[in-house]
Design a protein that fits this description.
4% strand, 178 residues
Length: 178
């Protein structure tokens, strides 16, 4: 067993659910990515301005998580080296319909809200999650240049990424594959 595998096996036993991620705050472990994000959103003021906004931000992130099943199916197939024919089948039969439904929901929320944000009149963790996801989809060429709704989502990402508190981080963060 390699050293990294041994290290993981030793660490795995100490995690609440035997997996990552885990955020440790002053000796208190918080497992699961959505729970960590919600915790940080509340701690730093990005959860929403009232319980209703918090609920909508949570709902939008849950919608993203529903879409991410199709997204991950496509990514994992490509990373596993599946034949191109299988990847294209997943893209056109699973990913694209799911993406289109997700984009339709996002565009409707943005149109109805009119503030340029998904919830209320300010930045929430839902904006951060969705903008990051759309950025990843852009890198995969999953937003079409000639589709007006896709262009609206690109402009939305630009708005979120140009938030003064985020600009430095966005400009200097490590660029990942997806």
């Amino acid at each position: 067993m390699a050293d990294t595998e041994k290290s993981w096996e030793n660490l795995k036993e100490k995690t609440p659910f035997g997996q990552l991620p885990v955020l440790n705050v002053d000796g208190f472990d918080i497992p699961q990515s959505a729970a960590i994000c919600r915790y940080l959103a509340r701690k730093f003021g990005y959860a929403g301005k009232n319980p209703e906004e918090e609920a909508w931000a949570d709902a939008i992130v849950d919608q993203y998580k529903d879409f991410s099943v199709a997204f991950k199916t496509l990514i994992f197939a490509a990373r596993a080296g599946k034949p191109q024919e299988d990847i294209l089948k997943i893209r056109y039969e699973i990913f694209n319909p799911s993406r289109d439904a997700y984009f339709e929901i996002l565009n409707k929320i943005l149109k109805d809200n009119k503030s340029g944000y998904l919830v209320g009149d300010g930045l929430t963790w839902a904006d951060l999650v969705v903008a990051d996801n759309l950025h990843s989809l852009e890198k995969l060429k999953a937003l079409d240049d000639d589709n007006e709704d896709h262009q609206k989502l690109r402009k939305y990402v630009e708005k979120i990424y140009s938030t003064p508190d985020l600009e430095d981080h966005i400009a200097t963060r490590m660029d990942t594959e997806v």
